């Protein structure tokens, strides 16, 4: 059993904050955009562009209560850019965080689950015959981006619907920039030589973040997701990570697939938003 202690939650949330921050810096580097990255209460506030899914507060409450003056500065920055402010708050965080946010007008709009698996991983399933998983390179970046964005645009309907919805062009820009962030590794799945799915992973301080995997609708239920998991868990184990994590919608097919592959539900994040 992988116990979801507050110490483990802090490590995972710091890794999440590092991923979001480094992705924002990649956007600034790639497009010359003005981005806002501000540490706050053990977490970080990030703002890139008006409709970006990276615009959020993450990892709050693992370094004591939130300073209200610091939060107000973040809120003014988002308001000046015309962007809604979303906070993802782990249930393992300082309890006063959600009380402060709701008092300041944040509304609860959903939840997401954080699943984890202890590493090194043993007895991983073999990659099914007919599926080839390869690390992403410069020549297949466009193919990888297309299958990932297309897969995300047509999610499985099992479980609680996602609270997020963004135009395809925004997702393409964000995913494309995230893929250039430090430590970000891409994987492409092929069947009969054709790209059918894409996945990614990032390693941070012993935490392997399985940052997302998508399969084209016509090729689902054929072992592509399991193949992605096996490949990434093997590489994370070889790199010395002691835990792998993935984030899913509650009750989703992704959660079901993860738990079938040995992942456990560690904790939930509450999603709160202030217009």
Notable characteristics:
275 residues, alpha+beta, Aminopeptidase, eleven-stranded mixed beta sheet, 7 helices, 11 strands, 34% helix
Write the layout of secondary structure elements.
Elements: H1 6-31, E1 36-40, E2 43-47, E3 56-58, H2 68-80, E4 85-90, H3 96-103, E5 107-118, E6 131-135, H4 141-153, H5 168-178, E7 184-191, E8 194-204, E9 207-215, H6 224-238, E10 243-248, H7 253-260, E11 264-274
Parallel strand pairs: 3-4, 9-10
Antiparallel strand pairs: 1-2, 2-3, 4-11, 5-10, 5-11, 6-7, 7-8, 8-9
Give an overview in words.
The protein has 275 residues and is an alpha+beta fold. It has 2 domains: 6-114, no CATH class; 131-262, 3-Layer(aba) Sandwich (Aminopeptidase), CATH 3.40.630.30. The chain is built from 7 helices and 11 strands. It has helices at residues 6-31, 68-80, 96-103, 141-153, 168-178, 224-238, 253-260; strands spanning 36-40, 43-47, 56-58, 85-90, 107-118, 131-135, 184-191, 194-204, 207-215, 243-248, 264-274. It has an 11-stranded mixed sheet, with helices on both faces. Strand 1 (36-40) and strand 2 (43-47) form a beta hairpin. Helix 4 packs across helix 5 (168-178). It starts with 5 loop residues before the first helix and ends with a strand.
């Amino acid at each position: 059993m992988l116990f979801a202690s507050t110490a483990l939650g802090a490590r995972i949330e710091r890794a999440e904050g590092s991923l979001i921050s480094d992705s924002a810096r990649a956007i600034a580097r790639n497009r010359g955009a003005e981005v806002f990255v501000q540490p706050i209460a053990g977490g970080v506030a990030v703002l890139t562009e008006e409709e970006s899914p990276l615009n959020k507060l993450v990892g709050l409450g693992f370094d004591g209560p939130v300073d209200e003056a610091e939060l107000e500065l973040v809120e003014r920055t988002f308001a000046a850019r015309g962007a809604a402010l979303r906070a993802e708050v782990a249930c393992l965080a300082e309890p006063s965080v959600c009380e402060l946010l709701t008092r300041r007008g944040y509304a609860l709009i959903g939840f997401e689950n954080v699943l984890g698996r202890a590493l090194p991983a043993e007895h991983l399933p073999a990659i099914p015959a007919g599926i080839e998983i390869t690390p992403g390179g410069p020549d297949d970046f466009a193919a990888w981006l297309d299958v990932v964005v297309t897969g995300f645009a047509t999610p499985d309907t099992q479980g609680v619907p996602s609270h997020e919805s963004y135009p395809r062009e925004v997702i393409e820009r964000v995913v494309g920039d995230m893929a250039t962030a430090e430590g970000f590794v891409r994987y492409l799945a092929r069947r009969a030589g054709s790209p059918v799915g894409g996945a990614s992973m990032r390693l941070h301080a012993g935490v392997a973040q399985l940052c997302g995997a998508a399969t084209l609708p016509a090729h689902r239920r054929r072992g592509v997701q399991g193949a992605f998991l096996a490949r990434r868990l093997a590489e994370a184990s070889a790199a010395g990570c002691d835990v792998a994590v993935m984030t899913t919608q509650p009750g989703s097919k992704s959660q079901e697939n993860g738990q079938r592959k040995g992942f456990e539900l560690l904790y939930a994040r509450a999603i709160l938003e202030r217009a």
